[in-house]
Amino acid sequence: MMFEGGAKSVFAPLCGKSLDLIWMYNRGHTVVGAEIAEQAVQELFSEKKLDVHVQHVEGVGPLYKSTDGTDGRLQVYVGDLFDLTKYRDLLLSSLKKDGQYYLMIIDYDPAVWPGPPHNITDQRVRQLYGEYCNIEMMQESNLTGISNPDNKASGGNAPPAKPKSAGAALRTSSYLYDRYYKITFK
Ligand SMILES: C[S@@+](CC[C@H](N)C(=O)[O-])C[C@H]1O[C@@H](n2cnc3c(N)ncnc32)[C@H](O)[C@@H]1O
């Protein structure tokens, strides 16, 4: 559905060397990815035998850009997306003036889990994007108190197990929210 009505521009954060990137590129879309592991990015281009040009983008890092047909429609930035300010700058520089950015965040007590996924508050979203963008919270799901699957085997009566995973740790948080935002330029 997302690809109806002609060529689109797609941003793919944490893209790795996912085959989806090539799938979209081969159908004429412009695909901009971001990935921390440079080796994955090199392999993405070499395994698909795509000619590539690498340039350095100030404040971000290397940018791998396809040169097939000189259209540069496949681009992957190598950088750390957990730096939220850098991520915002990269994202907003790739977003068209009338583009839409859908953001999903998870908000929990950071004392229970160091991430990933990292805790991001509503206030942090507004601090990052509020100066440049309209921010519409489309949905908020309160997941506080959902049961911990680690305790199920004991009938739920055992003391909370030491969390073995992010999912289990997040369920021990005194608050847990999913929030979905639509972000557009002012
Ligand atoms: C679970 S993989 C998903 C890869 C791809 N989206 C797919 O579906 O095959 C997560 C990817 O995020 C990348 N990654 C992890 N931490 C990152 C960070 N801080 N900044 C950018 N990329 C990161 C990893 O190197 C990995 O390629």
- Do you know the CATH architecture of the largest domain? 3-Layer(aba) Sandwich
Helix content: 10-25%
Class of secondary structure makeup? alpha/beta
The name CATH uses for the topology of the largest domain is Rossmann fold
For the sheet with most strands, the description reads:
5 strands, mixed
Assign the CATH superfamily of the largest domain. Vaccinia Virus protein VP39
Strand content: 25-35%
Total strands: 8
What's the order of the H and E elements? EHEHEEEHEHEHE
Kindly report the spatial arrangement of strands forming the biggest sheet. Answer: 1-2-5-4-3
- Spatial shape: globular
Which spans have pLDDT < 50 for at least 5 consecutive residues? none
Please state the CA-atom Rg, rounded to the nearest Å.
20 Å
> What is the first-to-last residue Cα distance?
27 Å
Q: How many structural domains can be distinguished in the coordinates? A: 2
In the CATH scheme, the class of the largest domain would be Alpha Beta
Identify every distinct bound molecule in the structure, by name, code or SMILES: S-adenosylmethionine
Residue-averaged pLDDT: 88
Biased composition (Low complexity): 155-166
GO molecular function: thiopurine S-methyltransferase activity
Organism: Dreissena polymorpha (Zebra mussel)
Protein name: Thiopurine S-methyltransferase
Give a structural overview:
By secondary structure, the chain is an alpha/beta fold. The chain folds into two domains: 1-94, Vaccinia Virus protein VP39 (Rossmann fold, 3-Layer(aba) Sandwich); 98-186, Rossmann fold (3-Layer(aba) Sandwich). The protein is 23% helix and 30% strand. It has five helices and eight strands; from the N terminus they run βαβαβββαβαβαβ. It has helices spanning 19-26, 38-47, 84-94, 122-129, 166-170; strands at residues 9-13, 30-35, 52-57, 61-66, 74-78, 101-108, 133-142, 176-185. The strands form two sheets. It has a five-stranded mixed beta sheet, with helices on one face. A three-stranded antiparallel beta sheet has the order 6-8-7, with helices on one face. The structure holds S-adenosylmethionine.
